[in-house]
Write a structure and sequence with these properties.
By secondary structure, the protein is of the alpha+beta class. 61% of the residues lie in helices and 17% in strands. The chain has six helices and four strands. It has a two-stranded antiparallel ribbon with strand order 1-2. Helix 2 packs across helix 4 and helix 3 packs across helix 4. The longest helix has 31 residues. The radius of gyration is 26 Å and the shape is elongated. 14% of the residues are buried.
């Protein structure tokens, strides 16, 4: 139930009339429910895509390792400390993932020239090639969806994603 206050002019001044009315679920509530449901679908699909993509890079690659590898590939190089900060993971977890990536032949490690205690991590050529292929395929699929949208729809989606990222 919602109460509305309505002001009315009378001959002697203002009189307030209280009106109560039952309010049905609003369009906003319904739209928010739809948005939440679709975001859940997007997140579920993203997790599925990460699993599929990891398997395409290497059959034994886990999703966590895939995320680290894609970050290193895009950054060019990284060290375990940077990865731990970026992914908010314990360094021991990072160390295990890095070791696995090295064992799979997807990651190379060398001493940092500025600080010998650190290791500089970089994706191998085969990892870079596999990741580029995954990105191309996903990019094509994404482009096919984007091609169905008008520029105004793309701008509206972009604004919505920007605002949601600030939540």
């Amino acid at each position: 139930m919602s109460a509305k206050t309505v002001s009315a002019k009378t001959g002697t001044g203002s009189a307030e009339i209280m009106a109560s009315a039952a309010v049905a679920p609003s369009d906003v509530d319904s739209a928010l429910g739809d948005l939440q449901a679709h975001l859940n679908l997007i997140f579920a699909r993203t997790r599925s895509l990460w699993r599929e993509s990891a398997a395409r890079v290497h059959p034994e690659l886990q999703v966590g390792g895939y995320k680290l590898l894609t970050f290193i590939d895009r950054a060019g190089t990284a060290n375990a400390h940077e990865l731990a900060e970026r992914f908010e993971m314990d360094k021991s977890v990072i160390s295990r993932q890095v070791r696995m990536l090295e064992e799979l032949g997807l990651l190379e490690s060398r001493p940092d020239e500025r600080d010998g205690r650190l290791r500089v991590l970089s994706a191998t050529a085969s990892a870079c090639s596999a990741l580029a292929e995954v990105r191309r395929d996903y990019g094509s699929r994404l482009q096919a969806v984007i091609d169905e949208l008008t520029p105004d729809e793309i701008r509206a989606a972009s604004k919505a994603f920007r605002l949601l990222a600030e939540v």
